[in-house]
């Protein structure tokens, strides 16, 4: 499966998470949230939240309705896998 990688401020990350939770009907008794809260997110050296998602998820209507605009206005930056992996904690 192909993945896409993104980074944003914690505020943008949380706003997007809240919006998508509402669109997907979370919590629904099975799934609590679309992704973990910003306080638990992987962060880069500047404290920005990083997110890896399946590429197909970006095509879901709720995501496709907001993601391009957030990228266009600079609120969300698409990054490459190497940048994402460099921020991952060592095991």
Quick overview of this protein structure:
This protein has 91 residues and is of the alpha+beta class. It is 35% helix and 20% strand.
Provide structural commentary.
The chain is α+β, with helices and mostly antiparallel strands and 91 residues long. It has one domain. Helices cover 35% and strands 20% of the residues. It contains 4 helices and 4 strands. It has helices spanning 10-24, 61-64, 67-72, 81-87, and strands at residues 3-8, 42-43, 49-54, 76-79. A hairpin with a 5-residue loop joins strand 2 (42-43) and strand 3. It is globular.
Descriptive labels:
single chain, 91 residues, alpha+beta, 4-stranded antiparallel beta sheet, 4 strands
Shape: globular
Q: Strands of the biggest beta sheet: in what spatial order? A: 2-3-1-4
The H-and-E topology, N to C, reads as EHEEHHEH
**Count of individual domains:** 1
Largest sheet: 4 strands, antiparallel
Q: Mean of the pLDDT scores?
A: 93
Helix content: 25-40%
Number of helices: 4
| Overall SS class | alpha+beta
State the separation between the terminal residues, measured CA to CA. 23 Å
């Amino acid at each position: 499966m192909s993945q896409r990688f993104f980074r944003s401020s914690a505020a943008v990350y949380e706003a997007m998470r809240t919006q998508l939770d509402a669109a997907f009907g979370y919590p629904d008794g099975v799934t609590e949230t679309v992704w973990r809260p910003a306080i638990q997110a992987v962060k880069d050296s500047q404290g920005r939240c990083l997110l890896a998602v399946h590429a197909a998820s970006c095509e879901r209507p709720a995501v496709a309705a907001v993601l391009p605009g957030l990228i266009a206005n600079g609120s969300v930056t698409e990054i490459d896998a190497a940048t994402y992996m460099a921020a991952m904690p060592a095991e």
